[in-house]
Known about the structure:
Layout: H1 24-47, E1 60-63, H2 84-87, E2 91-94, H3 112-119, H4 134-137, E3 149-154, E4 164-169, E5 172-177, E6 182-186, H5 202-219
Antiparallel strand pairs: 1-2, 3-4, 4-5, 5-6
Amino acid sequence: PLFVWVHILEPHNWATNGVAPPNRETRNQLYNRSLAASDSILSNVLAGFAHRSPDRAPLVIVTADHGEALGDHGQPFHSTDLYNSQLRVPLVIAGPGIQPTRLPEPVSLTGLTPTIVELAGFQAPANLDGRSLADVITGKRASTADTGTAFAAMIKDRSNPGGVAAFVRGRWKLIQSDAGLTELYDVIADPDEKANLAAQHPELVRELMVLLDAKLAAAKTSPFE
Length: 225
């Protein structure tokens, strides 16, 4: 078996000399140029498998570790907040047995490891932090916008202030900061996350907070214990 991981840096270096232009249109043009360069790199990688028959085509996954704000919520780059402009990333999976479709449910990148293991014909370890997506991307399970969960947290380091965590369930997204700010968004009706609905849905906030606290507690536990 062959496993290839390619880290494409072009979208990370979209701004000239690390300076974001003040004009939103110019920022978008520069970022789109970096995405076009990434497409070209990806096509060169996949060209090496063009001779294979369809049943022996590789499993191809294209994703990212973060997005880029490009001005959303007053931020030009990334590692500053957990709004969807920085948190939501592409996840494209193609290969034998996978029919082209668009899944509406939220999923987490922690699900990639068990997904790859299962699609490769093996059984993923039960203690992995993540749920396999193999059943839904092969059509064995239906997908709806009101199902699926994801968790994210900003961990303090040299480039990240930390202290913010988020939990997504279906259409609802909860963001909680150490400073005590609670935000709740309907990311389907309000994809730009402009209307904080926490005050209007206190019961839902409490329900999602329980799930978020469980994830935060699990994140503090060593996987080797």
